[in-house]
Amino acid sequence: MKLRKLIAGMAVSAVAVSSLAVAASANEAFLMYTDDSWLWGCWSAAEFPAGTVDVTADGTYSVFVDSTISTAQAEDEETGELVPMVANGAMVFCVDIDGLATDYGFASAGVDGVVTSADKMKLCNDNGVYISDVKITTYNADGTSSDIAVDQSKVLYGDIEGNGKLRIEIQNEYGDTAKDPCIDKSTISFDEKIEVTFTISGISGVPANDAAEAPAEEAPAEDAAPAEDAAPAEEAPAADTAPATGDVAAATDSSKGSPDTGVADVAVVAGLGVVAAGALIVAKKRK
Q1: CB under 8 Å to 142, separation ≥6 — which residues?
Q2: Contact (CB, 8 A) for 131 and 198
Q3: Residue 102: DSSP 8-state
Q4: pLDDT tens profile 169-217
């Protein structure tokens, strides 16, 4: 394919727009990726929700991004179509799982002696959480795909940024994987989609923070000893009352002053509740 002219250039933003994020029903995972030219870029789940997944228990999950995150296009001389630029390499290539480090007790912020990514991975493992079987697959518009070799022993993961997320760091030019990468990033070249599949274990059951916050079960109250029957007070005989005389007679009501007179206090409780709810396609043409 011949590319005659560049239609759109580079646009990079490394800041996730949290106000645009859609609240996740569990620990939401997304693929953070930009190629060597920064012409492809996904920095938050909100930027490409179609490729996210909710991590809810031990198991195998996949996240991906496609060419709709590309900020550059070129015109194919043969067809005149605009096609996204081919992605090559990886400057930043991670999977982030929102809130998982906080929920399962291995958040690294402020923990003494936990400094490097390796320290944070050990903290994660010490709390029983492991990542394994990381697989990377790239796809092209012509139907071809490639599996990228991964050295599993060099994948780093844990609360690497100290923000309560679990990050799987595959390649990061600004992180520890730049020194000892688990992939050969020069083998990455695609025009449609890149996908990461991983297996997580140690998160089935009650999250650590939920267990810590759960109220203690109340012990049943001991049976109280019955109170001794009080002897009834001896009633004094009523004095003889002479019949009333005159136009006005004193009315006598034996129920007056009794709690069972038929007059009850009425309490009206009204409440209103309001629930608010907010809410790579590339077609690279080859010769």
Answers
A1: 284, 286
A2: yes
A3: H
A4: 999 999 999 999 999 999 999 999 999 999 999 998 767 666 555 455 5
Q: Is 71 helix (H, G, I), strand (E, B) or coil?
A: coil
Cα separations in angstroms, 91 against 36, 106, 175, 267? 5, 27, 10, 66
State how far the Cα of 30 lies from the Cα of 198, in Å rounded to an integer.
Answer: 12
- CA–CA distance, 171 with 89 (Å, rounded to integer): 10
Q: Exposure string (b/e) for 197-226, b if CB count within 10 Å is 16 or more? A: ebebeebeeebbeeeeeeeeeeeeeeeeee
User: In angstroms, rounded to a whole number, what is the distance separating the alpha carbons of residues 114 and 26?
Assistant: 27
Summarised one tens digit per residue, pLDDT across range 21-34 is: 333 348 999 999 99
Has this prediction a pTM greater than 0.85?
no
